[in-house]
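pipeline: protein-struct stage 2 | run 1193 | Isopentenyl-diphosphate delta-isomerase
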Amino acid sequence: MAELVILVDERDQQLGLMEKMEAHRKGLLHRAFSVFILNSKGEMMIHQRALHKYHSGGLWTNACCSHPRDGETIIEAGHRRLMEEMGFDTDLEKVLEFTYKAELDGGLTEHEYDHVMVGHFEGEPKPNPSEVAQWKWVNVDDLKNDIEKRPQRYTEWFKIIFDRFIQSVNV
């Protein structure tokens, strides 16, 4: 079954639906979300995308990102995808939204109206190996320094969202 994304305008008003790969090939603006997970030590959970992913395989990124389904709220979508990718769930709070555009490998473009959420978690995730190669907790300052020194290790969207996120939640 083809996965559909919700095409939107610059104000996040729904315009229609399109198959996910087609929207990424055409670089059309669509609704997305990003989930950041922090622990009580102020560390951020990041994961390395599975090597076989259709884009950005092997790159490090935030806890999870995806696209809501038609009729699904952003928070519902965040809970669903957190379970599918990382094997746990936690309370989520939306902290910001913005639009970005990033060129990816394979001739794909992420052009997303992104809703960013934060959650807190202390346990061990049970990541889905078809989504996640490995995961770790990392000090936010160390992560910021590593992104600056070795940006090629991280997904394009994570590099764009990271600074906005840490400023919005004062990590």
